[in-house]
Write a structure and sequence with these properties.
alpha+beta, 25% strand, 130 residues, five-stranded mixed sheet, Translation Initiation Factor IF3
């Protein structure tokens, strides 16, 4: 096996190829075990969501962001609620303000069919903004 192919003359060493493949597989397995995958969690609100339900869902969103996951928050409209989109906008603005310490919105709130949604990304734990 070549150890240093760019050196003149190239450096090689004789080794057991099966053992080499085993060690590479073992290193890959350890690296995979240590990595963290980011999941997209969802939280659904309605224009008529009451205060206690709002606080309960907000705590769950904070927990998801603290774990490092992305959170999609959307306000779902049914029937004639679609006429009052400003109620959904107010809820999302309040959520953005309440989650300022935990995460930042990926982009502006947008309308997707009958729901108004925004995606939050968790803030890095080491960075504090004053």
């Amino acid at each position: 096996m070549e150890v240093a192919p760019t050196v003149k003359p190239p450096v090689c060493k004789i080794m057991d190829f099966g053992k080499y493949l085993y060690e590479q597989a073992k290193k890959a397995k350890i690296a995979k075990k240590k990595q963290h995958t980011v999941h997209l969690k969802e939280m659904r609100f309605r224009p008529k969501t009451e205060e206690h339900d709002y606080q309960f869902k907000l705590k769950h969103i904070q927990k998801f962001l603290a774990e490092g996951n992305k959170v999609k928050v959307f306000v779902e409209f049914r029937g004639r609620e679609l006429v009052h989109k400003e109620l959904g906008s107010k809820i999302l603005e309040r959520i953005i303000a309440d989650l300022a310490d935990y995460g930042t919105p990926e982009m502006e709130a947008k309308m997707e069919g009958r729901s108004l949604s925004v995606i939050f990304i968790a803030k890095k734990p080491g960075k504090k903004t004053d």
